[in-house]
TrEMBL record:
One of its GO terms (molecular function) is copper ion binding. CDD domains: CuRO_3_Tv-LCC_like (cd13903). The keyword Glycoprotein applies. It comes from Lentinula lateritia. This is Laccase. SUPFAM superfamilies: Cupredoxins. InterPro entries: Cu-oxidase-like_N, Cu-oxidase_2nd, Cu-oxidase_C, Cu-oxidase_fam, Cu_oxidase_CS, Cu_oxidase_Cu_BS, Cupredoxin. It comes from the Eukaryota. Residues 1-23 form the signal peptide.
Length: 515
């Protein structure tokens, strides 16, 4: 069992983290901006610091993670584990029976105050795939506190499809702003991002020729790339010049291989794809076209891009980027199907579940607030989990009023999202504690109960409907929210309080030490 005790120094913002450490126990607070942790088998460290960085050539204040104070970075250090281990979480890992460790401010815990710590103790024996970690308080992760997680499966059913799967094949995408996230929140309307960062490097229009990320491949080998969109606001169109991408995993769920040459990826979503390095030895443009700003539809001076470099190619940037041709192979979400145990729970028709919930998204332009069924989510002063452990079991007894919905145990739940008049979408909705079957995707009026895509983050679009299903087999309060971080802070969320009567203190909360 992994023990993770997160400790914050005096000058950091409050942070309910999704920070993970590879099988570590963090002990004793160290002065100023540090996390100190220690493995049971060897010594290791992870530090959180405030630091000015310039990943695109423009210097700004950030909050970063690293294994020493000198090597803090954006994105944060890679966290790895194995499916057979007790492992780490946060985004996408279910925290089954350990809801307290989910890391969400005022849902599963209070924020961690400066000079205090929080001990996380949990395992994930039955998940593998591509995940990530981030702060989950207000809009803080927009300032840089986010990083990748990979849980490797020793018996990966796709392992014969690729030769290389390691730290060098992780690709993170993030929009990047020259304003801090609190400045963006104060403005209420997010401006266009200044840059797109790929593995923490990028350029902005009119900026200097800062180094671009270079990913090296060897001709003739097959690579499993793990693509993670860690964006604050934007979504991206991802492609690699002259190469096909065979998708084999989505949000930690293995899929039947599906070959494309363009992936539209939204904040919090993840895809694994296999790339066959079978092209002439050269440099190829890796493209991540943002839907907002950053010279959104070009690569002038290397914006929106990185470099795929074959071993033996000259160390230079691609001279041009190939535009997508008429034979572009895009995909719709409904084109993806789970490799294992396909099929949605419940009966194969709309409404064929034990409980059906309908959520209509709304937007108040005068107040600049989002809502679900007319309710703007506002964080309670007492975490929902603590309310439940104190004896509140019914939605009407739980705060925030109208923002918590109780679910019975071991039942099939169907949720219909109606995009309504909510602007600035599509909205990537993420459910904590579960993966779900998307039986109706946002771009279709058809239902698929036989083999729908299974994932933890799906899209809800204006004036369209999305329908998901899952089984309530994981007691605790779970956040369901838009993963465009400003939209979440402006109210686009609810809490699903699952099996409240079986959420017991003795089972859910271990004994803690607070330093």
């Amino acid at each position: 069992m992994f023990l993770i005790n997160v400790v914050f120094g005096s000058c950091l913002l409050l942070l309910p983290t999704r920070l993970l450490v590879n099988g570590v126990e963090i002990v004793k607070s160290h002065p100023r901006d540090k996390i100190w942790h220690e493995k049971t088998d060897h010594h290791d460290q992870l530090f959180i610091v405030n630091k000015d960085i310039a990943p695109d050539g423009f210097q700004r204040s950030t909050v970063l993670a690293g294994r020493t104070p000198q090597d803090v970075s954006f994105p944060g250090p890679l966290i790895t584990g194995r499916k057979v281990d007790s492992a780490h979480h946060w985004h996408g890992l279910f925290q089954k029976t350990t809801n307290y460790a989910d890391g969400v401010a005022f849902v599963s815990q209070c924020p961690i105050a400066a000079n205090h710590s929080f001990l996380y103790d949990f395992g994930v024996p039955d998940q593998a795939g591509t995940f990530w970690y981030h702060s989950h308080l207000s809009v803080q992760y927009g300032d840089g506190l986010r990083g990748p997680i990979v849980i490797y499966d020793p018996e990966d059913p796709h392992q014969d499809l690729y030769d290389v799967d390691d730290e060098s094949t992780i690709i993170t995408i993030a929009d990047w702003f020259h304003l801090t996230s609190l400045q963006l929140l104060a403005a209420l309307v997010v401006p266009n991002a200044d840059a797109t960062l790929i593995n923490g490097k990028g350029r902005y229009v009119g900026g200097p020729d800062t180094p671009l990320t270079v990913i090296n491949v060897e001709h003739g080998k097959r690579y499993r790339f793990r693509l993670i969109d860690m964006s604050f606001d934007a979504f991206h169109g991802f492609s690699i010049d002259n190469h096909n991408l065979a998708i084999i995993e989505v949000d930690g769920i293995n899929t039947l291989p599906h070959t494309v040459n363009f992936i539209e990826i939204y904040p919090a979503q993840r895809y694994s794809f296999v790339l066959n390095a079978n092209q002439p030895i050269s440099n190829y443009r890796i493209q991540a076209l943002s839907n907002t700003g950053v010279g959104a539809h070009n690569f002038t001076n290397g914006v929106n891009s990185a470099i795929l470099r074959y071993v033996g190619a000259p160390e230079e940037e691609p001279q041009t980027s190939q535009p997508l041709s008429s034979d572009v192979m895009m995909f719709r979400e409904g084109d993806l199907h789970p490799l294992e145990n396909p099929g949605a729970p419940g009966n194969p028709y709309p409404g064929g579940a034990d409980l059906v919930l309908n959520f209509t998204l709304g937007f108040d332009a005068d107040m600049v607030l989002f809502s679900m069924n007319g309710v703007v989510f506002e964080s309670p002063t007492v975490p929902v989990l603590l309310q439940i452990l104190s004896g509140a079991h019914h939605a009407q007894d739980l705060l925030p009023k109208g923002g918590v919905h109780t679910l019975p145990p071991n039942k099939v739940i169907e949720i219909n999202f109606f995009g309504g008049d909510a602007p600035a979408g599509p909205h990537p909705f993420h459910l904590h504690g579960h993966a779900f079957d998307v039986v109706r995707t946002s771009d279709s009026s058809e239902y698929n109960f036989k083999n729908p895509v299974r994932r933890d983050t799906t899209l809800v679009a204006m004036n369209n409907q999305t329908t998901i299903r899952f089984v309530t087999d994981n007691a605790g309060p779970w956040f369901l929210h838009c993963h465009i971080d400003l939209h979440l802070s402006l109210g686009l969320a609810v809490v699903l309080a699952e099996d409240t009567r079986d959420t017991k203190k003795d089972d859910m909360i271990p004994v803690m030490s607070i330093y």
